[in-house]
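Each letter names a residue; structure tokens follow underneath. Both lines appear below:
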Amino acid sequence: MKLDALKNIKHKKQLLIISVVVLCVAVIGSVYYKNVVVVARTYSEAVSLYDEYDYAAAKEKFLSISDYKDSKSLAADCDTKQTENKYSNAVSLYDGGDYKKAMTLFKELGTYKDSIYMYEQCREMMMQQSVNNKIDPQYATYYGVVKSRHEAYSEGKPVKDKTHSKAKNAYNVKGVNLIKLVDLNLDGTEELIVGYSTGSDGSGNYEIYTYKNGGTELIKSGSYEKRSGSSGYYALELYAYSDGFKLCHLGVGSGYTEVFDGNKFVTDSKWKHSGKKYTVNGKKVNADDYSAAAISYDTSMIFKNNKTPISAYQYNDGNFTVYAMSFLSESAVNSLRLNNEGVYKTLESSYNRTKE
């Protein structure tokens, strides 16, 4: 009996050991299946979706296995591909004349490539279409502003630039020298920028209006700023960012930007440095943080030297849009005048329609 009891105990131990081993194998198998087989299958499915250009679905799967192989980088690549596709779609819509849908996509793209610039191009094309399709009271009221500036300062006429004695065939525009419609805060309402010069050196002033409650409202006025030293050029500069455009005031070793918040212009960022001392918005920072905050563009792309007139009145350099107002070549000054005349006629057409 005693021997049988011992055998029975030994048998039960063997069964327990076998059960534990089987359970461990099952657990290991389950973990292996979940962590290897399922993950590998998910990765394969994600790659297939990626190859089929379904980047949104592929990204979701890659993120669910972000620690597996190159899933994290491929998920990021899906974002890039989606952005590229959205940009291509926007360009196709623009080329096909569907400016409203294209404008929506370009706005969503923010500062990707030239999306802010293309957003404004869409608005300009829609503006041209609107002349044929409807009466626009906003343009009609803007017409009154520009007309009053023509009466006060005369319509823009090219005059020889006499401040650059070494230059030949350099011109400025005397009188009203800038008429632009720009949606500064991307809220769907274009602001009017109108500038004028009373001298022959290209210096002048600008005014910015918005349309509110059926009328115009002056929201900013200032002077064109000198660039490239005393023998340089005067300009108005805008900087594109995700919510619209910043008005730039760039000095040597200092500067600040302003944004339109829908009611008024407010200072957005201010920076200054002297020697090795750097400040941003009144706080001391290191050189790297200063470089990240201070914005600038390469003026040499516009101003070659004081002998060579500027070849185009509008330049786009990355996020910068620069309107050069002086020291222009003959073709540049003619292009500026044609732009101003085109916008003015658009505003005038809307005004005349309101009188029919």
